[in-house]
């Protein structure tokens, strides 16, 4: 995770106190931060080896000995990613700051953002003293519009095309071609999905489950289509209709028609599997997509919350009138 932030630090240095009356009323100075003592606050879980702030900006000295240093910094920290509900996932990354040299008896780390961090005390095997750290928990939710438009909706459309295979007449000769074309399209989407999500063998992402479910369903539809076509092109000269086939597909199911033909048996099979696969697509799609917990989370993003707070605390603007 790459974070662009300001590391605001303040401390008291008794060696930097002075009396403004003795120095012409000067109460504040801006000095290079390299010329004074600075706390060695570093990011423990960095990912690029840069522990400290690289840009040494000037520090502000107050006559009371208070020192303020607000350097900008770009940190790259390691973060464990859970892609189980991708693209409806929510990630929580941790940034762990602390002093590299001073232990808990010499340093007391405090922070103003009381609602966004936790103060921890840890003992290491090397030392008897505790070491303090400030851990920020940053929760991020992925914006799903791009993935919904470019992945989910096309995959849903392709999955419903699988159902139309059984609505296509067997005499057209394109049933197997349509099924194989759908399978190839899903393979392309599966390869595209593998390039987007981070490689992991821990869990299968939600969208990957949906694409895999559709591919398995389309594979079954190809097998069923081959069986239906085999039945369709049978004739009394090559295959004798079994009594149970005549009783089920000609006398029981279609009571209005009594045509003893293999083509009619194939048409009944097509219509039967049309409803079976339609139900399977609807139930499977809803059962997989609706597993994402973020779909039921109505919390407002932090930027919206802060904008509402600013609008409430802002002073009303009054235009004077003559």
Word description of this protein:
- There is one protein chain.
- The protein is an alpha+beta fold.
- It folds into two domains: 2-141, Acetylcholine Binding Protein, Chain: A; 145-296, Neurotransmitter-gated ion-channel transmembrane domain (Methane Monooxygenase Hydroxylase, Chain G, domain 1, Up-down Bundle).
- It has helices at residues 145-164, 175-196, 206-232, 243-252, 262-289, 302-313; strands at 2-6, 9-12, 28-32, 41-43, 58-62, 66-69, 72-76, 90-99, 117-123, 130-141.
- A four-stranded antiparallel β-sheet has the order 2-6-5-3, with no helix packed on it. Strands 4-8-10-9 form a four-stranded antiparallel β-sheet, with no helix packed on it. It has a two-stranded antiparallel ribbon with strand order 1-7.
Task: Write a brief structural summary.
After binding acetylcholine, the AChR responds by an extensive change in conformation that affects all subunits and leads to opening of an ion-conducting channel across the plasma membrane. The chain crosses the membrane at residues 145-168, 180-198, 210-233, 272-290. The chain is of the alpha+beta class.
């Amino acid at each position: 995770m790459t974070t662009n932030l300001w590391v605001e630090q303040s401390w008291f240095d008794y060696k930097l106190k002075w009396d403004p009356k003795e120095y012409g009323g000067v109460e504040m100075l801006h000095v290079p931060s390299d010329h004074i003592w600075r706390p060695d606050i570093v990011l423990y879980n960095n990912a690029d080896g840069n522990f400290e702030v690289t840009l040494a900006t000037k520090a502000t000295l107050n006559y009371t000995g208070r020192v303020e240093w607000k350097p900008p910094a770009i940190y790259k920290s390691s973060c464990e990613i859970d892609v189980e509900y991708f693209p409806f996932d929510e990630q929580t990354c941790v940034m762990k700051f602390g002093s590299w040299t001073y232990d808990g008896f010499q340093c007391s780390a405090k922070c103003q953002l009381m609602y966004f961090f936790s103060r921890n005390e840890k003992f290491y095997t090397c030392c008897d003293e505790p070491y303090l750290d400030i851990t920020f928990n940053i929760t991020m939710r992925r914006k799903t519009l791009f993935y919904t438009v470019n992945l989910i909706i096309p995959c849903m459309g392709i999955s419903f095309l699988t159902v139309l295979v059984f609505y296509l007449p067997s005499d057209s000769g394109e049933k197997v071609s349509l099924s194989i074309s759908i399978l190839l399209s899903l393979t392309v989407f599966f390869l595209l999905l593998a390039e987007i999500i981070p490689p992991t063998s821990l869990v299968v992402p939600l969208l990957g489950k949906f694409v895999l479910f559709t591919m398995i369903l389309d594979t079954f539809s190809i097998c069923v289509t081959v069986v239906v076509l085999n039945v369709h092109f049978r004739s009394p000269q090559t295959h004798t209709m079994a009594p149970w086939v005549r009783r089920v597909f000609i006398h029981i199911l279609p009571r209005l028609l009594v045509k003893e033909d293999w083509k009619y048996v194939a048409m009944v099979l097509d219509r039967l599997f049309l409803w079976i696969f339609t139900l399977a697509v609807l139930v499977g799609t809803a059962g997989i997509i609706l597993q994402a917990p973020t779909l039921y989370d109505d919390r407002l993003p932090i930027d919206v919350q802060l904008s509402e707070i600013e609008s409430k605390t802002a002073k009303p603007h009054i235009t004077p009138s003559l």
